[in-house]
Each structure stands twice: as C-alpha cells, then as structure tokens.
Amino acid sequence: MNNKKKDTEEVRLMKGNEAIAHAAIRCGCDGYFGYPITPQSEIMETLMELEPWNTTGMVVLQAESETASINMVYGGAGCGKKSMTSSSSPGVSLMQEGISYLAGAELPAVIVNVMRGGPGLGTIQPSQADYFQTVKGGGHGDYKMITLAPASVQEMADHTVMAFDLAFKYLTPVMILADGVIGQMMEKVVLPPFQPRLTEEEIKIKCPWATLGKPANRKPNYIYSLQLEAEEMEDLNLRLQSRYRTIEKNEVLFEEFDCEDAEYLIVAFGTSARVCQKAVEMARAQGIKAGLLRPITLFPFPTEQISHYANQTKGMLTVEMSAGQMVEDVRLAVNGRVPVEFYGRMGGIVPSPDDVFEALKKLIVK
Amino acid sequence: MTTNDIINPANLVYAKPSVLNDVPMHYCPGCTHGVIHKLIGEIIGEMGFQEKTIGIAPVGCAVFAYKYLDIDWQQAAHGRAPALATAVKRLLPDRLVFTYQGDGDLAAIGTAETIHACNRGENIAIIFINNGIYGMTGGQMAPTTLHGMKSSTSPNGRTVPLNGYPLDITKLLAQLDGTCYVTRQSAHTVASVRKTKKAIQKAFENSMLGKGTSIVEVVSTCNSGWKLSPADSNTWMVENMFPAYPLGDLKDI
C-alpha cells in the first residue's frame, strides 16, 4: 500500500482513531508513546503501519504500561518536543499521576482518552463517564487541563492539531476527550496539511526552557515540580490559576443548533450531542422550540453562553453517557434560574434520539 | 612549600570539577551521593559532554541532583526516570542521557520502568545508588534491605515471612538481552572511588556507542538511616552489604 499517495488525497474515509494518527504525523508531532487498550488501539496501530520515523522522523513507541507512556510523554515534552499519548478510561486512570506532574512542571502535552464504560475494568463500549476525572482534576493538586470534546472524525483530526497549539501556547497538558463511538466510527475527513517538525534551533527559540543540553552561554534548564518552600509552591499555583483564567477568557468553544429562538435547551457533548441534534429535529417537527448547545471545550466550559440561554429558555436538559457529570457545570452556569434536568445512560449504552426526545417531553416541556 | 605555592594555580593537582556547582549539598555528612555526583561531574567534563548531557533525577535523596551538576536536568516522578530517559534519548539520539536513582526508586516503585527500559536496550546509563534503605523519607525498609536489618518500618529487623527477600535487581537486569554492561561498585575507599569512576565512564561511553543499557550499581552507605557514624557505616557495609551484593562486573559485552 502506498501511504504517501493516499495522504495527498483530500477527502478520506477513516475511523476517528485513525484520523488522530494521521493528524499527529501531519502536524509535526515528535513522539507518540502508548499502550494498547480498546477502543483506541487503532491510533498506535495506524502509526506503526505508517512508520512516520521514515518520513517525518516522528518517534513511535509501544510502552510497557500507561504509567510509562505518560512519563515518556513528560520526558519528550521536557525537551520541547511535541509529545502525545492515547488511551481509554482505565489506562487514563493510570496516567493521572503523570498528568499532574505535567501540569506541575508546566509542560505541553496531548493526551487522548477514547472513553469506555466504567468503573473498574468496565466495558469496551462507549461512555462519557470520565468528565469529572478530566475537568475536575483526576490527578492530585490544583490543576486544570484544557479539554477538547470531538463529535466527529473530522474533529478528531482537527482537535489533534489544535490540542498541540493550545498545549504549547499555555504550557499545559491538553486532553482530547472522545468516546468509543467517535474513535470507532468511519466518516469522511479532510486531513490537516503537513507541517514540518520543529528543528532544534526552532525549539530553542520557542521553548527556551527545554532540556536539549546546556550550552556554555546559558544556565541549566530544569524540568521539575518540587518546591519544598510553601511560598514558592503557592507562587506556582498562583501562576497556574492566572493562566487558567486566561484560558477561560480566550479559548471557549461551542456549537449551537436551533438555539436562537429556543425555549428548551439541550446541552450535550461528543456522541451525545449527535444524538441530541436528531432529537432537536424531532422536537422541532412537532412544534417544540428546542435547541442544542454543544460544548467543544469542556474546560474552559461555555458557562457564559449557557447562562445567556438561562434568560431565554424555560428549561434545560443535559444529556450524557454517564450518571450526570457535566450537568453540575450547567447548573452552576444557570444558577437556579430555570430547571436543569438530566437524562443519561451508563455502562456503555448510547441513548437513542427517541429516548432523548421522550426525556425532553417528560422532564422539561411537560 | 609555602601556602602561596600550594594555592598557586600552576601547582594545583586537584580541583572541583567545573561541571559540579559550587553550592552546599543537602546530603548528610558521610553520605555516598556527594562522591558519586563529583565523579559524574568529572566524567562529563573530561568527556566534553556538558552541552550534550541530560540527566534524569529521581524521587529520593537525589531529587535535588539538578542543583549540583551544571547540566540540563529533568526530575521524574518516583520510579519513572527510565521512562523519561527512554523518550529523551529516542528524541535526541546524539545526547548523553543518564538516570540517577536510589534503590526504592529503581527497585520498588520503578521496577517495571527499569526492567523494560533495560530490556528494550535503551541507549542510556543508569546510576543506581543502593544503600538498602529509604533515606529521604526517614529510613524505611527498601526492597534491598538486608535480612534482619532494622529500619523504621522493620523496627525489629526484616524477616522473610513478613517482608520477603532482599531484591538483587542488578543480577536480574544482567540477565536481560538489552543490557550491555552491568557492574556493582562502591565508593568507600580511594581505590573503589577510582573503579567506580571508570565504571560510570564506561557506561556513558557505551550509551553513546549505542551498545544498549548500562547499569552501574554503587553499594552505598546511609549513615543517618542506618543510625551509625560514617566510619562505622563503611565497616557495616563491607561486613553486611558486600556479602549480599558482591562487587564486580556482572556483565560486560
């Protein structure tokens, strides 16, 4: 198979997981470190098949565990290299230590979580039950992680590029929070254009903190997150919090369907949002003025936009493939002004548009 | 010879290695870490590798190693130094990449990362300080703690039914096809310090030649954790640690 020829074609049909692999190579990723777990193994499988070390020079390595993977990402990121890993829920739980260290050391990195049902070993079916783990912490300490929630194969590719840009802009780990549906389904996708990997000279300018070896004319660079003095540790925390406020101000992304005149607003992300879009169409066909707001960034959360709709709507319904996690953030944004109800399925079940439409009528429209 | 003669730079026969920073170390008096830091500084300077070296510091007493050697450093999560080193070396193959780890870091929490980095034959050097105890956290039992040896978590001495056996991880690593040089040294006499220096230099050279993973274990003292004077610690190490962890090359190819 001539992969090079394939890559020059504009529109391709592929799985979400495959799109991430292609997009990583194309956006100049330097290193991928991963460990197999369903439903995301195609990311590493695709990379190994494409052998980017022969073309762009990108390193791809199968590690002995997710713990090792995330720490390899830390090592690569510390050198100013575009480094990433991917996993699914149980594996991402294992990575939480490393993610906290990345946040503490102010390192740019991209982590993909193609979520499956939990808790425990759970199921290999799709889920969105890692929302809390991703946007509320997961690892120890006060940190936040920019979180992108793709809802299509196209966004799997686009978010890979965007995630690296944001990670380096804010020196923070960035999570692409997908689910088993988005990872496994095949759709049309236009892959991003090829960007060359940064040269070491370019990294030295862009990341003066990177550990590339200490020339005589500069002080040594240290990548670390240890501060024995509480005052210094608080300084780091204040710096991080100030950065998170900037991120909240500048980087909120969301998409709206039929929201302009909506009396009832559904809030959903990822696969749930696709289901809800259909439910909104069903509601509109019956004369119910429903709309859908789809957060694309989960942190920063579109709090302002949801708050805005609290002034216009009679009620909101949050739909998730979980027991109800994002609904807490929707309720915080609404602050009691209109009822916010929840509908969800757990353990790997994807709700149908009929289910959502019925829930909308029963819980909100009444 | 007058004092002025002695301090005349032309008469200097010994100096602090330029790669070693001129700062007080936090290590206890009598600790082995300082000697090994100095050796690493000397070797990097003599090899002319200051601009090409990236050190990976552990969690443990050597967590602050980056303060003492004038090179670029990354400080790893507990036990994960070989994973960091793997990525750094693969992304920067012409650099000298070494980890500096204690026995708790390398042989307990980081066992998987250690074994798999060695088994992949990563072209890195691992400097392994084995003092049979967790020093930084206050003298708890390590995987390498000897039979009968007292620690704060084995106050009546380590026993097999409760704690299992002391782990000779270096012997285990020598069995792996990815390792090219596995040696166990000490730093309690002038002669042993010189041998350890040669061993570390060889490990660094191996990694630049792409021969695979090199491990230099240094059987060390922790007089604070052992509750002994520095001199008594050395005697105790010779009498008790050396029989369990005999010195010499375990592998050299």
Q: What's the β-strand tally of chain A?
A: 15
State the CATH class of the largest domain in chain A.
Answer: Alpha Beta
The percent range for helix content of chain B is: 25-40%
**H/E element sequence of chain B:** HHEEHEHHEEEHHEHEHHE
| Biggest interface, CB < 8 A | A-B, 37 and 31 residues
Would you write up a description of this structure?
- The complex is a heterodimer of chains A (366) and B (253).
- Chain A is built from 15 helices and 15 strands.
- In chain A, strand 6, helix 8 and strand 7 (173-179) form a beta-alpha-beta unit.
- Chain A folds into two domains: 3-200, Rossmann fold (3-Layer(aba) Sandwich), CATH 3.40.50.970; 255-365, Rossmann fold.
- In chain A, 43% of the residues lie in helices and 19% in strands.
- In chain A, the strands form three sheets. In chain A, strands 3-2-4-5-7-6-13 form a seven-stranded mixed β-sheet, with helices on both faces. A five-stranded mixed β-sheet of chain A has the order 10-12-11-14-15, sandwiched between helices.
- The mean pLDDT of chain A is 96.
- In chain A, helix 2 crosses helix 3 (42-50), helix 12 packs across helix 15 and helix 13 packs across helix 14 (326-334).
- With 366 residues, chain A is an alpha/beta fold.
- With 253 residues, chain B is an alpha/beta fold.
- Chain B has one domain (26-252): Thiamin diphosphate (ThDP)-binding fold, Pyr/PP domains (Rossmann fold, 3-Layer(aba) Sandwich).
- Helix content of chain B is 38%, strand content 18%.
- Chain B has ten helices and nine strands.
- Chain B has a seven-stranded mixed β-sheet with strand order 2-1-3-4-8-7-9, with helices on both faces. Chain B has a two-stranded antiparallel ribbon with strand order 5-6.
- The longest helix of chain B has 20 residues, at 190-209.
- Chain B is globular.
- The model of chain B has no long low-confidence stretch (mean pLDDT 96).
- Chain A binds chain B through residues 30-31, 33, 59, 61, 63-65, 67-69, 71-76, 78-79, 81, 83, 97-98, 101, 211-216, 220-226, and chain B through 50-54, 56-57, 63, 66, 70-77, 80, 83-88, 90-92, 95, 112-113, 116.
- Strand 9 of chain A pairs parallel with strand 2 of chain B.
